[in-house]
Design brief:
Layout lengths: L1 H9 L17 E4 L4 H17 L4 E6 L8 E7 L8 H11 L4 H14 L9 E6 L5 H14 L3 E7 L2 H13 L11 H16 L7 E5 L5 H10 L3 H4 L2 E5 L15 H7 L13 E5 L6 E7 L3 E5 L1 H19 L7 E6 L4 H10 L4 E4 L3 H8 L4 E5 L5 E5 L1 H9 L5 H16 L7 H15 L3 H5 L7 E6 L8 E3 L4 E4 L3 H9 L6 E6 L6 E6 L3 H15 L1
Helix pairs in contact: 1-4, 2-3, 2-4, 2-5, 3-4, 7-15, 7-16, 11-15, 11-16, 18-19
Bound molecules: 2-acetamido-2-deoxy-6-O-phosphono-alpha-D-glucopyranose (16G) and zinc ion (ZN).
2-acetamido-2-deoxy-6-O-phosphono-alpha-D-glucopyranose binds next to loops.
Length: 535
């Protein structure tokens, strides 16, 4: 009987009591030594989720992304490769917080009853993990839960987060008209490389691209992709850097996309030669930041906002060239952290609509789905471009009126295959950026010239109780504590081109304050003043 099997298995994976387990924007993420019981319980939930969805395969990713090496995390992926449905986040939280093994088994049964899940029907779960050593024991805990619930299970071992999302979608679409790709890691490389060739349309990438892989899973996986890539066809010359995955302690240490974005500088090692083209991935390869170090002006960063504007401008041009202008809708999705200059560039220069959503990929992804082409990126480098089935169909079936139209339609088709449709994918996004730069004949400097960022500052503020800070208007305004927003507004008024907001972090026990203004000193001053209001 399942109940006894669950209790017996659960006893091997105790939960550490008294910890604030909450399924947040990044799933459960914390110090790895607290996660054994959590991974077991996530296994139970994913088994339920699969059975609820008629046996479709659910993905489980074990990673703590850009966090220090001692942390880890567990996250559930829905059948189409998107994030776990919101309602189920609270089931996950309740299941993980069950105080005893018996209460855990009871809650599992209660969920099955309330959600009308047939526990004897087939269920299937696949898992992947990043390079953290703790991942191995967490996968064992997960596997034990799946065995106890007689759920079919495949361990895909070490993967980037976007690869696990890709595989989940491939499995669930195999043999259907929406088949996403071959169900294997090699299938992922082949799909990307082939789409990269097609997107370039005979153009060549110039100059070396150095990729800082955060000493995470992106390093070996990028090297693997390159084995399937013929650089004589594309000109792409990649130097894989910071790809040491044998010393766990160096993961995300002084390198990676999060380091570059938050410190606003290049990793100290290896030292970028002046003018070299660089990009950084984060620890699980779902975030991407480009930069170069200018001999005269120093470090210059091209973040998620820049990638979004680059992609939107390129796709809008292709639409015009393909004669699709006005037929399909392109939208750009940002969060409140997007630099005001990027928003202005999209709305005024590109003449495209911008939607602002709360922080967290699931919100952006959801909003992007309401466009034919939804370009979504967080400033921190996480994002992708979603193509609706209608759009992809149009690229394939529209009768071109000229060779130029044909070329544009084929480029759009290829991009829809190149860009990961399930989630932001640093490796796929990097190839997209390289394609666009090659088409435009641009260097990073040309790309940077499109607009000037407003100077900005992000401050972390320790507060007694972050839950007191509630927001509205896609996190751009505080509704609580009462009066706080008025004070912020009064403050912002005193500066030129200024904007500032405060919100409770979803991943740490703190508030974050963002400010931007016409000058560096004004942005700094405003951020400090708003931080003082929040404190
Ligand atoms: C999570 C989100 C990330 C967001 C970050 C904000 C996902 C997969 N990840 O890591 O997109 O930028 O939280 O953190 O949605 P914060 O709430 O602490 O500012
Ligand atoms: Zn990540």
């Amino acid at each position: 009987m399942d109940r006894d099997a669950i209790i017996a298995a659960s006893k091997k994976h105790d939960i550490v009591s008294g910890k604030p387990y909450k399924y947040g924007t990044a799933g459960f993420r914390m110090s790895a030594d607290l996660l054994d019981g959590v991974a077991f319980r996530v296994g139970l939930l994913s088994a339920l989720r699969s059975r609820k969805l008629s046996g479709q395969t659910i993905g489980v990713m074990i990673t703590a992304s850009h966090n220090p090496a001692v942390d880890n995390g567990v996250k559930i992926v829905d059948p189409m490769g998107d994030m776990l449905e919101q309602e189920w986040e609270s089931y996950a939280t309740s299941l993980v917080n069950a105080p005893t093994h018996e209460e855990l088994a009871d809650y599992y049964q209660k969920l099955a009853d309330t959600l009308k899940i047939d526990l004897s029907s087939p269920g299937k779960v696949i898992a992947g993990r990043d390079t953290r050593p703790s991942g191995i024991t967490l996968v064992t805990a997960l596997a034990d839960a799946l065995a106890a619930t007689k759920t079919e299970y495949i361990d895909f071992k070490i993967l980037t987060t976007p690869q696990l999302h890709y595989l989940t979608r491939c499995i669930n679409t195999a043999g259907t008209p929406g088949a996403y790709g071959e169900v294997s890691e090699v299938g992922y490389y082949k799909k990307l490389v082939e789409a990269f060739y097609r997107s370039l349309r005979g153009r060549k990438v110039t100059g070396t691209l150095s990729v800082d892989c955060a000493n995470g899973v992106g390093g070996p996986k990028l090297s693997e992709l390159l084995k399937h890539h013929d650089s004589t066809k594309t000109g792409l010359d990649v130097k894989v850097c910071n790809d040491d995955v044998l010393r766990p302690e160096v993961l995300n240490l002084d390198c990676g996309a999060d380091f570059v974005k938050t410190r606003q500088r290049a990793p100290p090692s290896p030292k970028p030669a002046p003018g070299d083209r660089w990009c950084s991935l984060d620890g699980d390869a779902d975030r991407l930041i480009y930069y170069w170090v200018d001999p005269d002006t120093g470090f210059f960063m091209l973040d998620g906002d820049r990638i979004a504007t680059l992609a939107a401008s390129f796709i809008a041009d292709l639409f015009r060239n393909a004669g699709l202008d006005g037929q399909l809708r392109i939208g750009v999705i940002q969060t409140a952290y997007a630099n005001g200059a990027s928003t202005k560039y999209v709305e005024q220069h590109l003449q495209l609509p911008v939607v602002c959503t709360p922080t967290g990929v699931k919100h952006l992804h959801h909003a992007a789905c309401s466009y034919d082409i939804g370009v979504y990126f967080e400033a921190n480098g996480h994002g992708t471009v979603l193509f609706s089935p209608d759009a992809v169909q149009t690229f394939k079936t529209k009768e071109p009126q000229s060779p130029a139209q044909k070329d544009a339609l084929e480029t759009l088709s290829a991009l829809a295959d190149l860009i990961n449709q399930t989630v932001g994918d640093a490796i796929s996004d990097m190839l997209m950026v390289e394609v666009i730069l090659a088409h435009k004949g641009w260097s990073l400097r040309d790309w940077a010239m499109t607009y000037s960022d407003l100077p900005n500052r992000l401050v972390r503020v320790e507060v007694g109780n972050k839950d007191l800070f509630q927001t509205t208007d896609a996190e751009r305004k505080l509704s609580h504590p009462a009066g706080c927003q008025d004070e912020i507004d009064q403050c912002v008024k005193k500066y030129t081109n200024a904007r500032s907001f405060a919100r409770a972090s979803g991943t740490e026990n703190a508030c974050r304050v963002y400010a931007e203004a016409a000058t560096r000193s004004e942005a700094d001053e405003l951020a400090n003043k708003v931080a003082a209001i929040v404190k």
